[in-house]
Amino acid sequence: MLELTDIDAFYGNSRALQGINLMVGSGEFLSVLGRNGVGKTTLMRSILGLMDRVTGRLSLDGTDISGLRTHQRAKAGIAYVPQGRGILPRFTVRENLTLGTFAAKSANGIEEWVLELFPVLKDFLNRYGGNLSGGQQQQLAIARALLAQPKVILLDEPTEGIQPNIVEQIEDVIVKLNREHGITVVLVEQNVAFARRASHRFALLEKGRVVAKGAIGELTEDLIQLHMAV
Ligand SMILES: Nc1ncnc2c1ncn2[C@@H]1O[C@H](COP(=O)(O)OP(=O)(O)OP(=O)(O)O)[C@@H](O)[C@H]1O
Ligand SMILES: [Mg+2]
To answer: ABC transporter domain: which residues (predicted)?
Structure first.
């Protein structure tokens, strides 16, 4: 279980998150929704320990991890698929995947089940990451995160800017990770239809605060109009 209590996060002196309280149960799927610039990525970065300064308490399975460095949080079981994917373009697919394995608690190398989720990666192991399409890079970013053997995976707009034919494939894998592999998912998403299909719970952000949260069935059209329409 991942729990955020009274989290504030700062870029220098500017406060980007204010009083965030959120809980994601083990095996749950939470979607974080909201317009551009409301703090969704900042929330992911705060969970990972990538911000200049965060106050409040963050716990994983009852243990306070607020004081841990990013690599320790990764070892504790939190993996991150960043917005924009963060693939190293001059590293091969294999090398990008190997980076993920370094964050795993027990070194298992590039596990077969992960490659089987994304067969295209298997074919392209020796290609440079930078030569893959956007959709393939996204699949690589997810695979890399899975090789860290996470309990919780944070996915920041994983289908943003991806060709439609690959979007559905990526969405199906994300649902499968949760339902079949029991991985807890925190998904940042602008696509409400996918959030509804995939999630158990939602949180809506506005100006760095949670303005609504609950079971996904409570995500009404009114809330979407109010907090997501542009
Ligand atoms: N590196 C930074 N330095 C200073 N301010 C930042 C930085 N990154 C983001 N911000 C500010 O923090 C706020 C939240 O940004 P954030 O990137 O978390 O939003 P977001 O919800 O992820 O947006 P998007 O949907 O466009 O990805 C915004 O006001 C943004 O301008
Ligand atoms: Mg963002």
So the answer is: 2-230
**Greatest extent of the chain over all pairs of C-alpha atoms, in Å:** 49
Structural contact between residues 118 and 149, judged by C-beta atoms closer than 8 angstroms? no
| Structural domain count, the chain | 1
Q: Which of 7, 15, 42 to mutate to test the pocket of ligand 1 (most atoms within 8 A of CB)?
A: 42
pLDDT in tens, 165-204: 899 999 999 999 999 999 999 999 999 999 999 999 999 9
**Closest ligand 1 atom to 43 CA:** 18
Instruction: Please name the residues in contact with 21: beta carbons below 8 A apart, sequence gap of 6 or more.
Output: 4, 5, 6, 7, 210
Phi and psi, residue 115, nearest 5°:
-65, -35
pTM > 0.85: yes
74: domain CATH number is 3.40.50.300
What contacts 104, CB < 8 A, 6 or more positions away?
75, 147, 148, 149
| Pocket residue to mutate for ligand 1, from 38, 53, 85, most atoms within 8 A of Cβ | 38
